[in-house]
Amino acid sequence: MVIIGYVQPQLAAAGCTWDGLSDDRLTGPNFLDWLCNLNMEALGYILETQEIELSSGDATNDQQDAYDLWSADDTKVRCYMHASMSNELQKQHENLKSSREILKNLKGE
Questions:
Q1: Is residue 93 within 8 Å of residue 105, measured between CB atoms?
Q2: Has this prediction a pTM greater than 0.85?
Q3: Distances in Å between the alpha carbon of 48 and those of 13, 84, 91?
């Protein structure tokens, strides 16, 4: 599978694998099937929860740990999303910072 050069390093750095994703690549018309497959992953909760934000400097250890876990999981979801998109859609979504932003853009929200 060919993945645009700017996406592949992000995937590798996050420990994401993209083997087997080419069968379910998002091309546009197959959005609902693609979303269903994406939600089947253990990280599907990321698409259904609000982004965790920390208040500046006064977060507890538990809040920081929750943020760190959410952030790492969101990075993995973004990697899977990019890896399973057509090259054209990857390019359109390369600058979006969270998986929720990507999903909103794809839904046209």
A1: yes
A2: no
A3: 24, 19, 24
